[in-house]
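quick one
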Amino acid sequence: MAKSASQTIYVLNGPNMNMLGTREPEKYGRATLAEVETLCRETAADFGLDLVFRQSNSEGELVDWIQEAHVNKAAGLIINPAGYTTTSIAILDALLAVQMPVIELHITNIHARESFRQNSYVSKAAKAVMAGFGVEGYALAITGLAGMIGAKADN
Ligand code: DHK
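structure w/ 3-dehydroshikimate:
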């Protein structure tokens, strides 16, 4: 049987995620963002998915990339909005404007932390939310998204 065209997923990371590895390691762990990207690439490859992986400290750049995912007909998007989770109506609106499954991801369990971290705008556009699994959550989120978009694990 002919192999179907590969699907692309986006994994976007918000402000301060470039500091992973040294940033509050007792909360966020010691893996660097580069190591998280490798984990994501390996997991995406297991499902035959192409991956776009990015990080920005700028709200507008994240909005541009969400729109880019739409233009490029991405099959789905995972976003760790970090500090923009609870402030950015612009990111929420961008996510609502794209026709693809969106997964919100947090390394930590935001519900066990300060109350200001818990009222997520992004959740209003998310099909699923992943929080508290550490960086392994990225692999779990890609696995869940793969199921949503019908991508099967390569054997
Ligand atoms: C990351 C951040 O930078 C915080 O602003 C969020 C999130 C939690 C995380 O757990 O990945 O509150």
